[in-house]
Amino acid sequence: MMKSALLTPAEMKRADEITIDSGVPGIDLMECAGDHVARLARDMCGTEGRVLVVCGPGNNGGDGFVAAQCLQATGRQVDVVLLKEASSLTGDAAIAYSRMGFEGELTTTEGLRQKLLGCSLVIDALFGAGLSRPLQGEAEAFVSAINESGIPVLSVDLPSGLNGETGQVMGGEGGCAIRAERSVTFFRHKPGHYLIPGRVLCGRVDCVDIGIRENALSEIGPTTFINGPDVWSSFFRVPQLGGHKYDRGHAVIFGGPMMTSGAGRLAAGAALRAGAGLVTLVSPPSAVMANATQLTAVMLKSVKEAGGILELLKDPRLNAALIGPGYGLGDNARAAIQAILESDCALVLDADALTNFQHQPTELFDAIHKRAGPVVMTPHDGEFARLFPDLMGLPKLEKARQAALRSGAVLVLKGADTVIASPDGRAVINENAPAWLATAGSGDVLAGIVCAALAQKVSAFEAASMAVWLHGAAGAEVGPGLIAEDLVPALRLVIAKLVGIS
Ligand SMILES: NC(=O)C1=CN([C@@H]2O[C@H](COP(=O)(O)OP(=O)(O)OC[C@H]3O[C@@H](n4cnc5c(N)ncnc54)[C@H](OP(=O)(O)O)[C@@H]3O)[C@@H](O)[C@H]2O)[C@@H](O)CC1
Ligand SMILES: Nc1ncnc2c1ncn2[C@@H]1O[C@H](COP(=O)(O)OP(=O)(O)O)[C@@H](O)[C@H]1O
Ligand SMILES: [K+]
């Protein structure tokens, strides 16, 4: 799990300090960092062309001085420009500057523009983890000039102007940040490398070892992770010799009326493919015929009202339920959701199940807090806004964390950078989902996969994380032209690969 830890800039600073306190001089870490930066710079522009290293007033600039020195030592033409006078440098950055062996030039924005002419790579060593406020004045003008030049940029640690914790440009809409082709960070990625727009601004990110002590992580106790098998593979269930289908759980999908019945079918098919031993699609009588003509291994049931749902869920073998996709809105729908909330089964609430509570969210959250079984909610941003309007201004990680805490559910806040947050404070960011997944019905498939993992008795946070990853991997397997129906068969290939490697 610690392999996939993400560190906020403050946690990274702590990891630096722990390492330095254990006897490793900070300048050694910086020299290692700068050496990697130089190596990647050579990777980006080969042996030809001039490199411009733009250095800020802190240790990020220090990495830039080391990189400049390494590049010059291999015969590369290098220019170093400074945002602040060299005399104001302190600590390791001052040591790195003194060891560089040549002078950096304190320049104006116009001077920087002149230096940019004809160079083949810019190393952005203006600000990294120490960025404390939006860029303004000369710093902002430097960043704009670099972006406008169109020259490829390698950012040190983070594109300058980007908040490494939130993935947002410092200053929001009015702020500015470097748009890098590649970035190189140290020890562990930061959330901002994966959260949009950070992920776009960083380009490809390499994370390199600079000698930070691994055991610093146990002292720091990170709570944010990048999603992948490292987070949940020990929870992934492989059918056992001698087992039977009930060992794999019985998922119940509550589908909607005929005109929106496709959503329930997609979810039911996905739940079966993702490993639930049995899947029953429960629908109002009007949809039974439509479902029956299209489904074979999925079992069907017709239930009219909330009373029928309560009766049905008395069977303890029905251990996970999903309601929401194509379900419909109104008093009857709300009563059905409340009936399911009263049961003990593990529960996924998606789409209409969330929208149905937009005017009484606390009623929903109270019911979730009261029940014994776990709940996973899978809103996209629009659904999230209906339940948590006051959280909309927050950065995505914080939004998901606060919503999980308030609701008592594991929260899957969907999008290109889906965040899964647990009420206990843990969160993962997903990065394997291709944009081809932005298509009608894709979320219904995801909800079905989550339900399958819950049916297999995977804990809610790991179930949700596993499902989001499998969904993304299925999307990548299908690729261009993907429609939601393609995801279900693709899951078979994804699971085969997963079982093969685990
Ligand atoms: N030994 C180590 O610790 C290692 C560290 N490493 C490297 O160090 C980096 C972190 O270094 P750092 O903490 O010095 O912060 P950094 O990003 O250089 O910026 C701080 C400076 O910028 C200033 N400033 C901030 N915001 C500003 C703004 N908007 N506009 C203008 N100024 C602004 C701020 O001034 P102040 O806020 O006090 O006014 C301060 O002077 C990290 O990303 C990694 O690259 C690696 O070498 C590995 C070993
Ligand atoms: N740009 C994107 N890149 C990757 N995944 C995306 C992107 N946009 C949406 N997705 C994913 O596609 C799915 C869409 O779900 P949702 O909005 O509920 O669609 P629907 O209601 O049509 O099923 C979610 O899993 C979401 O994370
Ligand atoms: K930088």
Give a topology summary.
Elements: E1 5-6, H1 9-21, H2 26-45, E2 51-55, H3 59-73, E3 78-82, H4 91-100, E4 105-106, H5 109-116, E5 121-125, H6 137-149, E6 153-156, E7 182-186, H7 198-202, E8 204-208, H8 216-220, E9 224-226, H9 229-232, E10 250-254, H10 261-273, E11 278-283, H11 285-294, E12 299-302, H12 306-312, E13 318-323, H13 331-342, E14 346-349, H14 351-355, H15 361-370, E15 375-377, H16 381-387, H17 396-407, E16 410-413, E17 419-421, E18 427-429, H18 442-455, H19 460-478, H20 484-501
Parallel strand pairs: 2-3, 2-5, 3-4, 5-6, 6-7, 7-8, 9-18, 10-11, 10-13, 11-12, 13-14, 14-15, 15-16
Antiparallel strand pairs: 1-9, 16-17, 17-18
Helix pairs in contact: 2-3, 2-4, 3-4, 5-6, 10-18, 10-20, 12-13, 18-19, 18-20, 19-20
The chain binds ligand NPW, adenosine-5'-diphosphate and potassium ion.
Ligand NPW binds next to α2 and α3.
Second rung of CATH, namely the architecture of the largest domain: 3-Layer(aba) Sandwich
What is the name of the CATH class of the largest domain?
Answer: Alpha Beta
**How many individual β-strands?**
18
The rounded Rg comes to 26 Å
Strand order of the largest sheet: 1-9-18-17-16-15-14-13-10-11-12
CATH topology tier name of the largest domain: UDP-N-acetylmuramoyl-L-alanine:D-glutamate ligase
Biggest sheet record: 11 strands, mixed
What fraction of residues sit in β-strands?
Answer: 5-15%
The domain tally reads 2
How much helical structure, as a percent, in the residues? 40-55%
Structural class: alpha/beta
Q: Could you give me the name of the CATH homologous superfamily of the largest domain?
A: Ribokinase
Mean residue pLDDT? 96
What ligands can be seen in this structure?
ligand NPW, adenosine-5'-diphosphate, potassium ion
Inertia-based shape? elongated
Poorly predicted residue ranges: none
Ends: how far apart?
A: 14 Å
Cofactor: K(+); Mg(2+)
Catalytic activity: (6S)-NADHX + ADP = AMP + phosphate + NADH + H(+); (6R)-NADHX = (6S)-NADHX; (6S)-NADPHX + ADP = AMP + phosphate + NADPH + H(+); (6R)-NADPHX = (6S)-NADPHX
Family: In the C-terminal section; belongs to the NnrD/CARKD family. In the N-terminal section; belongs to the NnrE/AIBP family.
Domain YjeF C-terminal: 228-498
